[in-house]
Design goal:
heterotrimer, A mainly alpha, B mainly alpha, C alpha/beta, B: mainly alpha, globular, C: 4-stranded antiparallel sheet
């Protein structure tokens, strides 16, 4: 006699090659819906702007059969911006999901453990002190983020790490970096502070192809790695001892997950600045939508993409005449969504 | 050793610890009065305070600059230390700083609004706004954290705080980006400084800090019971709802008042209670909030004043803001603490 | 040590000269232990005598400061993690499941040493999970969230996970804590089934001496990090041994149901007869 697996999952098994797994219809449905929404948001993002371009013209421009003026706008302005929003959203969403799973803490986000603050300090130092050695803000942000990530890990390492210690050390490092940034902002000239703040909130303005290149390349490597690590990560959720007993190399998996998470957020921050709240909220929203016991990486990435693209659309259209930075809207939009999900979850009895 | 003998042995040690901390604080106050762009020898400081100043210039510096500044460091430091210890006890979360209730984000938003939208330029004006913003934000967080079935639990409170803080930060940035004057006021406030305030400001905020401090210290015995867990605390006769409201009001008054005047230096409230706990542990007293609260209230101004003094001396004649230096001293200390011991699961 | 004459008795697990410490505090020193293959071994002792520490060292969760743990003659530290997990499974004390995880998912995770990223749910996996759920009487609760269950139900879910792991050697740290008496006996009977019908070697830390006597083939009594006595229950559990290891005066009689030694403790309010000799209770 066999137990029926829950109605919310279906095993599939291929005889040859011996591939098998479990499908979760709800997770799949949510992911497909999110993918569709992302695609729509992407399309709208390319057609909306100072000069509204109908979607059909965008397609023509992409195919090379439109008029040269439209082609220029689409290729040099719209497409890079939309692509940047898409990639950054996915990167932050996946990174947050990984970190929250490995630290067993729904409040953990790459925003909180110092990586984005480190990027911020590096960029603001470049703006205010002129310490840029010829590097652009993107490279500076990257260096800041990666250095801080390494620093946090090194400081948290004491015969191995625990999720708890990483978060605590990260909080301390974040505080130091934030204070350094505040100091530089206060010390600089007005216009420098203005430019710095513009970067610090997260901004998709003026993204170009050579900024997207490194991000896309990194994601092509790291996203598959994240997916492969998924199974091991979920075993890690049961606790270090149980996971070891089940044959997981705990320290190795944790380091790998952290590297992937830090890499994604570092490159994402370098491209668009620390877009607020996405890395924290997207995985939580995805988890509650899919009804899983952990933040699902794919759904989290897609949720992040929807958040960023959607917010950018609103940011551009909200105040006529100016384009607000995307980071301003993600915070304002993301928070009520998270709160609503929290309240709903509590009412249904699954706890906060 | 009988239990009463043990308890009797603890009290002198606790008093000694407090006395030593007070001595450290007094020493720092003296240094704060003496050092700065104009160095004033300690005996001249003493004479000036007694009304017998060696020169007009020294008289002005001591009475109009150093004394208010030191007093500000004392009052706001104590407020932040108290509220930090209280917050960690209420949420049973060693990561809680008073800012998670959204207090500093609310103050920041109000500061930026007061200049950007209302065009207030006066020094007094924006402080009251900051205070009001802090109060409003923490009320909002408390209400939001209490939604849903199980009322306000520490986790929900923290998440609500994070959510509200994010929203407020976004809105603050929005205003600051569109209004250069607002940005200017905001960025100086944000670095966290004891400088540039006159004594009137402190006197007006002091009543709120006082009420907050009294409420906080009154919570102390209940906090010891709260630390044992909700169920045990209730069986020991604790009224949970009441103590939570009392605590939140105290934290809001203390942190709101402090942050409004000196800027968002709330991390002092995160680190100092941990230091206090380590000290009471080493002195064999254990985690007793009747001693932890006063100790935090004394150690926090030590940290703040030390940072302020260092800021005056490091880059003469330019000053580095106290808020910045607190991070560079407190941060590594905190990290060392995290490495050396398992930080308390309260 | 009992004479092992069963064929295909299973992997041979032993510790030699083991010294175990947490930071500088030495918990176990110079300990030699051979776990009889194909038998049930119970480790008993007072609190903080090192029982759980020993179990963790056997499971390779704790690196010894000196000495080795050998599985089939090879040091466990030289066996690849995955291979070891297919041979030896441990259920630690008080494990915590993430919020929202269902019982069947938890039990499914027990199959992970046998899975690869392309073969994530083979027929064997499914069978093992269903069998484990049936054996622990958790079939009806399979789709409930683990953190919503009662203490006893939760413990059975974790045991089901250990069973699904399908290892020839099972190490269980206090598997009957939190269970009511009926379920305690259920679990112990299940463990006996796994031993008798599947030939699994079981090492478990137990608090209840009488259960240890009844269900174990081999008892190891520990005191302050050393083995105070080991052997069949009838040889090891005597009034003198109990007083030495636990500091408890008692009368050791014969269990009327199973015939194994039964410890009847004496305390300040119950002194018993003057004669401390073994008295059958009828």
């Amino acid at each position: 006699m066999t137990t029926q697996l829950a109605p919310d999952r279906a095993p599939f098994r291929l005889p040859t090659p011996p591939i098998s797994g479990i499908l979760r219809p709800r997770l799949l449905t949510v992911c497909l819906t999110l993918a569709l929404t992302t695609f729509l948001a992407f399309c709208v993002e390319t057609s909306v702007g100072d000069i509204p371009i109908p979607l059909t013209d965008v397609m023509k421009a992409l195919a090379g059969t439109g008029d040269p003026g439209t082609e220029l706008i689409v290729h040099e302005l719209r497409l890079p911006r939309a692509l940047a929003g898409l990639l950054v959203g996915i990167a932050f969403g996946v990174s947050g999901a990984l970190l929250q799973t490995v630290t067993l803490n729904p409040l953990a986000s790459p925003d909180m453990i110092g990586i984005t603050q480190g990027a911020g300090t590096a960029v603001v130092a470049g703006i205010v002190l002129g310490w840029d050695g010829g590097l652009g803000t993107q490279a500076l942000g990257l260096i800041g983020a990666l250095t801080t990530g390494l620093l946090v890990y090194a400081l948290a390492w004491k015969r191995g790490t625990t999720g708890y210690r990483i978060v605590l050390v990260g909080v301390g490092v974040a505080w130091i970096c934030t204070s350094a940034t505040d100091y530089l902002m206060a010390r600089g000239q007005r216009f420098q502070a203005q430019a710095a703040l513009g970067w610090l909130v997260g901004n998709l303005n003026g993204r170009t192809w050579d900024q997207i290149g490194p991000l896309a390349l990194t994601m092509a490597l790291l996203i598959p790695a994240a997916l492969l690590l998924g199974r091991q990560m979920r075993v890690l959720q049961l606790g270090d001892d149980v996971a070891r007993g089940l044959g997981t190399r705990v320290q190795l998996v944790r380091v790998a997950v952290l590297l992937v998470s830090v890499g994604l957020v570092a490159f994402g921050t370098a491209t668009a600045g620390p877009v607020a709240f996405v890395a924290l909220a997207a995985p939580q929203v995805a988890q509650r939508l899919c009804g899983t016991a952990h933040p699902p990486p794919v759904a989290a990435g897609l949720t992040g993409a929807v958040m960023v693209l959607g917010s950018d659309l609103i940011a551009r259209k909200l105040v006529p005449g100016t384009e607000l930075p995307v980071g301003i809207v993600t915070g304002v939009l993301g928070a009520p969504v998270l709160l609503w999900l929290l309240v709903r979850a509590n009412r249904a009895g699954s706890g906060g | 050793m009988g239990t009463s003998a043990v308890r009797a042995a603890k009290r002198p040690r606790a008093v000694l610890l407090l006395a030593l901390s007070c001595a450290a604080l007094l020493a720092l106050c003296a240094l704060s009065m003496a050092y700065g762009a104009l160095g004033v020898p300690l005996d001249q400081v003493w004479h000036t305070l007694l009304g017998d100043a060696p020169s007009r210039r020294i008289d002005t510096v001591i009475w109009s600059v150093r004394l208010p500044r030191t007093a500000l460091g004392l009052a706001t430091g104590a407020a932040l230390g108290l509220s930090g210890a209280l917050m960690q006890a209420l949420t049973r979360n060693p990561l809680a700083d008073p800012g998670i209730l959204g207090v500093s984000a609310g103050a920041a938003f109000a500061v930026v609004l007061s200049v950007g939208v209302l065009g207030l330029g006066s020094v007094y004006g924006y402080i009251w706004f900051a205070f009001g913003g802090a109060l409003a934000a923490s009320v909002l967080v408390y209400l939001l954290g209490g939604l849903g079935r199980s009322g306000s639990t520490p986790v929900k409170l923290a998440l609500a705080g994070v959510a509200v803080t994010s929203v407020l930060f976004s809105l603050t940035s929005a205003v600051a980006l569109t209004d250069p004057d607002a940005l200017n006021r905001y960025r100086f406030w944000s670095a966290g400084s004891l400088a540039g305030q006159d004594e009137g400001v402190l006197l007006r905020v002091l009543p709120f800090l006082g009420v907050g401090a009294v409420l906080a210290l009154a919570c102390a015995p209940s906090l010891n019971r709260l630390a044992l867990g909700d169920d045990v605390a209730k069986s020991l006769g604790l009224r949970l709802g009441l103590i939570r409201i009392q605590g939140v009001i105290a934290v809001t008054l203390l942190t709101g008042g402090a942050v409004a005047v000196i800027g968002p230096v709330v991390f002092v409230g995160l680190v100092v209670p941990h230091i206090a706990r380590v000290l009471t542990q080493s002195a064999g007293i254990g985690p007793d909030y009747r001693w932890l609260l006063p100790l935090s209230a004394i150690l926090a101004p030590c940290l703040l004043l030390a940072a302020d003094i260092a800021g005056r001396l490091l880059a003469r004649p330019v000053e580095i803001q106290a808020g910045v230096l607190v991070a560079f001293v407190g941060g590594p200390f905190f990290i060392a603490l995290v490495r050396r011991r398992r930080l308390a699961e309260l | 040590m009992t004479d092992v004459s069963r064929e295909n008795a299973g992997p041979d697990l032993r510790a030699q000269g083991l010294r175990l410490a947490y930071d500088d505090r030495i918990v176990v020193d110079d300990l030699d232990l051979a776990i009889p293959p194909g038998r049930i071994t119970a480790v008993v002792g007072a609190n903080a005598c090192g029982k759980s520490t020993l179990l963790r060292a056997l499971a390779r969760l704790l690196a010894p400061k000196a000495g080795t743990v050998l599985l089939d003659g090879r040091s466990v530290h030289s066996i690849p993690t995955r291979t070891l997990a297919q041979q030896l499974g441990i259920l630690p004390q008080a494990p915590v499941a993430p919020e929202g995880l269902t019982v069947i998912d938890l039990v499914g995770r027990g199959r992970s040493p046998h899975q690869t990223w392309w073969r994530q749910w083979s027929g064997t996996d499914e069978e093992a999970v269903h069998e484990a759920l049936r054996a622990t009487d958790m079939t009806d609760l399979a789709h409930r969230a683990v953190d919503e269950l009662s203490g006893g139900q939760r413990q059975r879910a974790w045991i089901a996970m250990a069973v699904a792991q399908g290892t020839p050697v099972m190490l269980l740290d206090e598997p009957t804590t939190y269970l009511d008496l009926a379920h305690q006996i259920d679990v112990l009977d299940l463990i006996t089934d796994l031993n008798r019908h599947q030939g699994r070697t079981v090492v478990m830390v137990l608090h209840d001496l009488n259960q240890a006597c009844r269900y174990a083939d081999h008892v190891v009594a520990m005191k302050a990090g050393r083995i105070a006595g080991e052997g069949p229950p009838a040889e090891v559990i005597t009034a003198a041994m109990v007083e030495d290891v636990f500091g408890l005066r008692c009368v050791v009689g014969e269990d009327p149901v199973s015939g194994t030694p039964m410890v009847v403790p004496m305390g300040r309010h119950h002194e018993g007869t003057d004669d401390p000799a073994t008295v059958p209770i009828g």
